[in-house]
Amino acid sequence: MGIVRYIRKRLAEADSCVDEMAKVALSHRGLRRVRYRYRDDTVEVEYDPEQLSADDAKQAVEPLLRELSVRAPDCSLRNPESGVCAACPSVAQHGKRWQLNGVAYRAHFDGETLTIEQENAPAEPTDRILRRVKALERPAPRWRSRAFWEPILTALTLLMIIVGGLLRWSEQVMLANLAYAVAYLAGGYFGVLDGYQTLKERRLDVNFLMIAAAIGAAIVGEAPEGATLLFLFSLSNTLQNYALTRSRNAVRALMALQPDTATRITPTGTETVPVEDLQVGDRVLTRPGERIPTDGVVQHGESYVDQSPITGESVPVHKSVGDTVFAGTVNGSGVLEIEVRAPATDTLLQRILQLVEQAQEQKARTQRWLERFEQRYALAVMGGAAAVAMGLPLFGWSFPDAFYRAMTLLVVASPCALVISTPATLLSAIANAARRGILFKGGEPIERLAGIRALAIDKTGTLTEGKLEFTDLVLLEGASEAEVWQVIADVESRSEHPLAHALVAAASARGYRPRAVQQVDAVPGKGIVATLEDGTEARIGNLRLFEGETIPDEALQAVQSLRQAGKTAMVVWVGGRFLAVAAAADKVRPEAAQAVARLRALGIPCIAMLTGDAEPIARAVAQQTGIERVYADLLPHEKLDALRQLSAECGAVAMVGDGVNDAPALAAAEVGIAMGAGTDVALETADVALVGNDLNNLPYALALSRQAMRVLKQNLIFATSVIVVLVILTFVANLRLPLGVVGHEGSTLLVVLNGLRLLLYRPADSRV
Fold first, then answer.
1. Which range has the top average pLDDT, 5-14, 250-259, 431-440?
2. What is the pLDDT of residue 168?
3. Is 458 one of the catalytic residues?
4. What is the pTM of this model?
5. Which one of the listed residues 41, 295, 458, 658 is annotated catalytic?
6. Domains of the chain (ranges plus CATH)?
7. DSSP string covering 475-531, please?
């Protein structure tokens, strides 16, 4: 009775946090999602502002905060060393659902974050509240965690099998049976917990099939074989959990990048504070070798910063005054003074972590289909086993032999390898990509990206850096270079236009400083007009600024030539004299041509550029990058027409853009890929985000997705083949239960290990 009470107590503990969160969600329909993060003891709530106010949402979650703060310190399954809780194994494996008043909720658990959310919630934006649960004061010892006990119970099962065999050999039947009883309890303990949870949901899973087969073996006098089944099954579960944890830890290691404290600069000196206390506008000091504690802008100093953990860049990046830095990156040899631009909960690192957590929850189409298939298949296996047990005696079989054959069928026909193959493969691919600075929003974008046949790429901010730079200065007859540069410095320093910034930077680099002017007037779409200190009028702009003036042929020819080269030309005019034509251009990313070439090598036949810029500028960039198809002068909605045309001619299209003005095209494409180091749109709009702005990650992501689908197909074909072969051998060759167990569990381990190979995958071209 004591054992039964203990098991019931453990079952109650295993799902108590889930139920408490579900109570809150079910009683407040405006709550869309409730997430509890064990590592930092925070509760995150997403709510519908049309149904709940911020105060209502806070009041709704307060009882939950109190409940979790009480439960968490006493949770018998908590692992304080890693900070990862294993309290909800059945939720992690099978999920859980509730329904009230027509609203369905489901649970997820990834080993760290417990999530309760509405199914099929509307897509409109929701507000979010972050609340911190008080730190755990009495962490449970490691020996009370499942991660500790599962391998020990597995080893105890094997030991009891050996002991039972030796005792039976000596005809100590009672002691041998006692050893087998201990083996059953040890090997089946966690299987019973998980199977019971799914039975409460009126579902069947592989745990139920294995426990039923082991009990059936004992009933027909084959307890050693049943114990062997439970040993191999528990060993398989232990190794699977270890392998999948390795996959998740490859991403979760990002969490260790966030420093706990920062050195804040104060009027009286410096102070060490928790990063959570930093406010936007604070200044922090980062010394050589330290991790940068916040997203911000360098205000003083210069250094090389290792951004590889965040953006995937292999070479440290030089940072100086005005440059952006990210939390979790490593400062080199210089001292940096940084102004905080984002709170600790909204840094690029935290948004990446949230995105990866959500990606791990989002299931691919194949995985969703397999999970639906598992339930029907498990029922079919149970029905088939019952038919064998009851039907074979009608053909002269003894009932014990028929029942044994039915138990063997339960084992070999179990879909365990099929079901585990998809998450093992896709989680490994997501982890591999995240280390490179490629963020997949779940497994489904990996599936879709592997099948694309065309690629549409935005120009500004994607193929180019989105930053104008001075390129040419063509002096006209009678003008001096010094006079032209001084006029540019005087006039353009008063403008906020990006082109003006490029010209002023060039003038400043040549030693020219702005002088005082009497008046400045911007002429939208044309240029700028100024009255210099001596009263002389000066103009800098395009040809439309000089309508009514007689423009020299030399100036017209220079403008035409520069435009054909893809540059923006501006005429410099002072006191009735045309002095020069200055030009600037958006710089093409140095890796763009190489990335396009690699995409072609990967078999993408259609690569097109989509841009709102003029045809000559677009053609010039296309020539530099090796792109043949160019769609220019496009408005945002016209890009959709270009995508449809590409899709009709070539097949499934992926769209690559900067995530701002390309949002409609990113959403309409088969796969939307956003460039951008942490912009909200880049991380939220598209299916895939290239955090590091490195175009070489495009061919890498494509090659990785295709390899992931190849591995997934290998796993599915192999797992299916093993099941078919073992079922045939069960009836044709009288396959013994232990051999069936070895074949079944062996195939499960092989598909997991095959999927985990993606953690180490690199494309054949090592430069990619």
1. 431-440
2. 61
3. yes
4. 0.66
5. 458
6. 2-144 (no CATH), 146-251+356-427+707-760 (no CATH), 259-346 (2.70.150.10), 465-587 (3.40.1110.10)
7. EPTT--HHHHHHHHHHHHTT---HHHHHHHHHHHHTT-----EEEEEEETTTEEEEE
